[in-house]
Specification:
mainly alpha; Arc Repressor Mutant, subunit A; 3 domains
């Protein structure tokens, strides 16, 4: 029987397992080994190099449908306190558990439960193989596309042709065929007493796996995807900060050419909203000379808009931000 409570780092790990034996499957996916004695959740996670907050976020969500206290203190505030590497490890290991163990296990159970002479049983096996192919295709898509994308985000080198929203649109419910398989067995597959017991045991495992898949999908949708969206925003902000820092420390000059004093004066005029004629009159030069200066400025800085020049002027101290009308 489940105890609807929010588990905390100070709770005993064995208490969590006794209250919710289904969490046993999650332990392996997190890389937590059995034999933790009377250690707390926090002690057990630390012993296995697992982020405690992320572990509890997943466990509390799968057990109670709730996330942990949002007013937590964590070194990963930008991603909601969650450790993305820990989540990635959990999801990858969950895939391996399902593809390499559960799918073959249920396949063996079905074959042992169905008479070889039963043509209807053969159709049931085909339905199962169709389901297995679908779930494998879905999980392999995540492993080939989503997980490398997240790793590129963590490395600060996001791929421009992909975002987690693409994954959300691709993330279809994959349990439909499993539910159909279950109903076909219950409604239409007759069996003798021996095979009936085997089918009943197989159905029990199918029901458990249906629940496992539902929880797996919900962890991806409600914990993993929101955390990646926050990480995407953080990386984009850092990209902007890095670009500005580059302008400050390198002068924004890819060609290595320094701006002349006159070119800096022209930038100040542009930032102040003056037209070319007004800049020319202020600096006592011709309009054509102003145009030439602006062309050279754009070439040296690779900045072509007044807004970009305004940022450059502010971060390089050419103008005071208070004097700029933003």
């Amino acid at each position: 029987m489940k105890h609807l409570k929010m588990y905390e780092p100070s709770d005993k790990m064995i208490t969590l397992i006794k209250d919710n034996y289904s969490v046993l499957q999650a332990l392996g996916s997190f890389g937590i080994s059995l034999g933790f004695g009377d250690k707390t959740v926090s002690e057990t996670c630390e012993m296995n190099h697992v982020d405690t907050y992320t572990f509890l976020a997943v466990v509390n969500f799968t057990v109670n449908g709730q996330t942990s206290d949002p007013d937590h203190s964590s070194p990963s505030e930008a991603t909601g306190g969650l450790s993305i590497p820990t989540l990635l490890h959990y999801l990858k290991a969950s895939h391996a558990y399902y593809l390499d163990f559960q799918l073959p296990f249920i396949r063996r159970e079905l074959r042992e439960s169905i008479s070889e002479r039963d043509e209807l049983g053969g159709l049931i096996m085909k339905l199962y193989e169709s389901y297995a192919q679908e779930i494998r295709r879905h999980m392999k898509y995540e492993e080939k596309t989503l997980f490398p994308y997240v790793e590129s985000l963590l490395a600060g080198r996001p791929k421009n042709d992909y975002n987690v929203e693409t994954f959300s649109k691709h993330h279809e419910q994959t349990g439909k065929k499993l539910r159909e398989l279950k109903l076909m067995i219950i409604k239409y597959l007759p069996a003798d007493a021996h095979h009936n017991n085997q089918l009943t045991a197989t159905l029990y495992d199918i029901y458990n796996n249906e629940e496992w898949l539902r929880q797996h999908a919900e962890v991806e949708d409600h914990i993993f995807t929101p955390a990646i969206k926050r990480l995407e925003r953080l990386v984009k902000q850092e990209d902007v900060s890095n670009s500005i820092s580059e302008m400050v420390f390198k002068g924004g000059q890819d060609s290595g050419e320094a701006l002349s004093d006159r070119e800096k004066d022209v930038i100040i005029g542009v930032v102040q909203g003056l037209q070319n004629k007004e800049i020319a009159d202020r600096l006592c030069i011709s309009v054509n000379t102003v145009t030439t200066h602006r062309r050279n400025i754009a070439r040296k800085l690779q900045i072509h808009s007044p807004a970009g020049l305004t940022i450059y002027a502010i971060v390089n101290g050419l103008v005071d931000i208070k004097s700029v009308k933003l």
